[in-house]
Every structure is written in structure tokens, then in C-alpha cells.
Design a protein that fits this description.
It is a single chain. The protein is mostly helical and 331 residues long. The chain has 2 domains: 154 residues, no CATH class; 139 residues, no CATH class. Helix content is 59%, strand content 0%. Helix 3 runs parallel beside helix 6. The longest helix has 21 residues. The mean pLDDT is 97.
């Protein structure tokens, strides 16, 4: 039976995120110290996003919570999410997050993964029945949009790694936000994606690497599906993955094995499986019927491999539910 997003697993994901977005330690900072006065803990540096082991995981933990509240407003956890948002997503605390961006050496802070998730969080907040959360977050979203506007034109080559630096993944999230909130950024994303990926062909599918949590091949394909029309995308995909109907590259169809879920980098591979489980159904509608069926079956296999492991060790627990939510919604 196919996996689906049910109230039961949505509630479980919400409880997981409620348990870590306010957990300050352990924590991995993305922080450059310019002097002894810059030695500070996560909560002192980030009034909102100090939990979840790192800044970007805390951001998308809040995204998960708001999204589940909107999709399942009758869940018992929905009230706790609203209470948390009332406490944390305020003008004053957002001002503190903005102030961090004014520090020296923050140009590369959380670029581009955290930037994109902050835009996704603001977009989700704007869809809530409480507009004050989105209004509070808007200045921070606009600040990261301006960083994208400055960064994308000077990025000569896209970053294709399967980790936080991946360009295509950030463009997917940023474009969803920009289409409603920043048309110049939406146009820039479409232009740069076409320039970077438009001539890609015969992708070898050399993945996963040992600490990937993104499928660089499928995320690129999903990015191009978002920026191209249906028929241009089919033409592009036929060149990018010309042997897909024959099941090649075989690597794209096989879930990754995770040998040690207490190792934060190796645990990334559970996210890799969930990322593929998100991408394959999103791409399936552009495929021939038999291949679309195979794509959905492949997504199910990847879900089965990693969905049971979204909790259990903090190295995965502080972030995996977000990718599980993406995958289940896509399915």
C-alpha cells in the first residue's frame, strides 16, 4: 500500500519538530568570530533559530510546523504550534535575526540552503490564517531575496553537490516564494537555471556520495521542470536522462544504504532517500505511463528505506521529518 500523509504521521512529525526547534544544544554554528566579543552561544546570536542543531534545520523545522498546522488544523499539536509561533515569530525577534546579517563575514552565512528555507518559511507563514507571523518574517525574507539577487549573477557555475550548497535545490524553494513575492528574483532564477542546466545531457547518475542528502540529478531535473514549460521540459529530460526508459542510470533507482545513523554525515543518506521519494513523484507526470509507474514505485522503495528512521537518533531527528513531509506530500 502506498505511503501517504495521514493525520497520524503529520502529528508525529509535529511532535518531533516541537521537541527540537527550541533545543539549543548540541549545536553547530555557522559563525565567524571577528573578535572576542563575537564568542556567543546560539540563543544569543539567533533569537528565533537557535535550536535543531543548526540554523537551517531550525528554519525548516518551523516550516514543517506551520505547514502541518495548515494542512491538519484539527490536530492536537496545532495549538502548540500557534503558541510557539506567537512567542517566536515576532517583529522584535526577527529584528535580532536581521541584525546578525549585518555582522562582518556573513555574506556566505547559510548560502544558499538556509536562504531558500527562510523564503519557504515566509511563504508558508503567508498561507496561514494568522498574517502577523508572515508580516513579522517579511523583512528577513526580503533580506535573503536581495542576497539571492546579488549572488546568482556572479555564480559562474552551479554547485552540483548533494549537500547544502546545491544550487538547484535552493532555486526550487526560492522560485516558489519569488513568484508571489519578488518577480525580479523569479525571472533571475529562470534565466540562471536555463543558463546553468539547459545544455546538460547524458547525466551519469554518479550518486550518492557518502554524505549526500540531495539527489543532485533528480533535484536538477525537478528544478528544470519548475522553470520550463511541459513540452520543453520533456525535450530537456530526454537529453539529460536519455536511457531512463531502460532503467538507466541504475543508481537513480536504488535506495541508499545507511550504515550508522548516529554519524551525522552518514545519516544524511536517509535524507537522500527521502529527497528522491519527493522528486520521483514530482517528475512522474512528465514521463510516459510505464515509466511514471516505475518512478512512483521507486519513490515508495526509497520511502520504505528511510521513513522509519526519521526519529531515534538526534543526528537525523533534528531534520529528517521535513524531507519526509516533502516526500509524502508529493506521493
Amino acid at each position: 500500500m502506498p505511503h501517504s500523509l495521514t493525520p497520524e504521521n503529520a502529528g508525529r512529525f509535529a511532535r518531533i519538530a516541537l521537541g527540537h526547534v527550541g533545543q539549543e544544544y548540541p549545536h553547530k554554528l555557522d559563525h565567524v568570530m571577528d573578535g572576542p566579543e563575537d564568542v556567543a552561544g546560539p540563543r544569543a546570536l539567533h533569537p528565533i533559530f537557535f535550536g535543531s542543531f543548526d540554523w537551517h534545520s531550525c528554519v525548516h523545522g518551523y516550516w514543517l510546523l506551520l505547514r502541518i498546522r495548515r494542512l491538519f488544523p484539527e490536530l492536537p499539536e496545532a495549538a502548540a504550534v500557534a503558541e510557539l509561533a506567537d512567542e517566536m515569530l515576532t517583529i522584535g525577534k526577527v529584528a535580532g535575526e536581521l541584525a546578525y546579517l549585518d555582522r562582518a563575514y556573513t555574506g556566505g552565512f547559510e548560502r544558499p540552503y538556509g536562504w531558500a528555507w527562510l523564503l519557504a518559511l515566509h511563504r508558508e507563514a503567508s498561507l496561514q490564517d494568522r498574517q502577523d507571523w508572515a508580516q513579522a518574517l517579511q523583512p528577513l525574507a526580503l533580506a535573503f531575496a536581495e542576497r539571492f539577487m546579488a549572488y546568482l549573477p556572479k555564480l559562474t557555475y552551479p554547485i552540483r553537490t548533494g549537500t547544502h550548497f546545491n544550487t538547484a535545490f535552493a532555486l526550487i524553494l526560492a522560485l516558489e516564494w519569488a513568484q508571489d513575492w519578488h518577480p525580479p528574483l523569479a525571472g533571475l532564477i529562470r534565466q540562471r537555471a536555463a543558463a546553468w542546466y539547459g545544455e546538460d545531457w547524458n547525466c551519469p547518475g554518479w550518486e550518492p556520495s557518502g554524505d549526500d542528502f540531495l539527489s543532485s540529478a533528480l533535484v536538477e531535473a525537478l528544478c528544470m521542470r519548475r522553470v520550463l514549460g511541459e513540452e520543453p521540459f520533456r525535450v530537456w529530460l530526454g537529453g539529460f536522462l536519455p536511457e531512463l526508459a531502460a532503467g538507466e542510470p541504475r543508481s537513480l533507482f536504488n535506495p541508499a544504504a545507511v550504515s550508522d545513523r548516529s554519524d551525522g554525515k552518514i545519516a544524511h543518506l536517509d535524507g537522500f532517500n527521502l529527497c528522491r521519494a519527493w522528486c520521483w513523484p514530482e517528475l512522474a507526470d512528465a514521463l510516459e505511463p510505464a515509466l511514471a509507474e516505475q518512478a512512483r514505485a521507486t519513490a515508495e522503495a526509497h520511502l520504505a528505506a528511510s521513513l522509519p528512521h526519521v526519529a531515534g537518533d538526534y543526528m537525523g531527528e533534528h531534520w529528517l521529518a521535513t524531507f519526509a513531509l516533502l516526500a509524502l506530500e508529493a506521493g
